[in-house]
Specification:
Elements (H helix, E strand, L loop, with lengths): L7 H22 L3 H26 L3 H27 L12 H22 L5 H23 L3 H23 L4 H29 L17
Helix pairs in contact: 1-2, 1-5, 2-3, 2-6, 3-7, 4-5, 5-6, 6-7
Length: 226
């Protein structure tokens, strides 16, 4: 089916799915933590917009609550918390360099193609929107994992973890029209608690090794007792 034959709602879903996938690629290529968190905030806003659009187009009022929570938590609150931690720890001027960035980006492109290839048998009898939703969701999850693998700063690992949750939430909203409200509220609370715990974890690492470079953790050794 050609894109022109789809409804306005389906075309909007495809556009937002592409933008969400693009933000995952942008996060993969960012070397500054401040910009990384900014792109993550944009991804959260796009996710909230997708949820609100699904709620309006399909008449699911409970999804408006999910859209509001996504906007407040993933688009505003958590990014502000991460930005404050970055500036408080003096990481806003540091570069989280990537070894072989071209290979990393090529790996991200391969994961995107792989996601569509894996999704084809699953949604063989489903519409184009469902195929793209599942494929993009899987790609966002895999790109979030790749971000965590290739980065050294703990903040980037947290952003990758939150991006994985965004990918799963996107599939739940577009493919299944949302989870039960109790589950969505529980997930939102868990995400907020995780952000707070990660913030405490950052300070503990900083006090122990004077850095948030996780590569230094492998060099730690137990001190000899007198």
């Amino acid at each position: 089916m050609a894109i022109a034959e789809l409804s306005l709602y389906q075309q909007a879903v495809l556009l937002l799915a592409g933008l969400i996938a693009l933000t995952s690629f942008l996060m993969l290529g960012q070397s500054r933590l401040v910009r990384l968190v900014l792109v993550f905030a944009i991804q959260g806003i796009l996710l909230a917009a997708t949820t609100a659009m699904v709620a309006y187009a399909l008449d699911f009022p409970h999804l408006f609550i999910s859209a509001g929570l996504s906007f407040l938590l993933k688009g505003i609150l958590i990014p502000i918390m991460l930005q404050r931690l970055i500036y408080r720890m003096g990481l806003h001027r540091e570069l989280d360099t990537i070894e072989h960035p071209a290979r990393v980006m090529m790996g991200g492109a391969f994961l995107m193609v792989f996601s569509y290839y894996v999704s084809l048998p699953v949604v063989a009898h489903s519409p184009l929107v469902t195929l793209n939703a599942i494929a993009v969701s899987l790609a966002v999850v895999l790109l979030g994992m790749l971000l965590m693998i290739t980065r050294r700063q703990a903040v980037a690992h947290v952003v990758g973890f939150m991006s994985i949750e965004n990918g799963l939430f996107f599939a739940a909203v577009v493919s299944t029209y949302g989870m039960p409200m109790v589950v969505e509220l529980g997930v939102a609370a868990d995400v907020l608690v995780a952000a707070v715990v990660f913030g405490v974890f950052f300070f503990q690492i900083r006090e122990s090794i004077d850095s948030l470079d996780v590569d230094r953790l492998s060099k730690l050794s137990e001190a000899d007792k007198p």
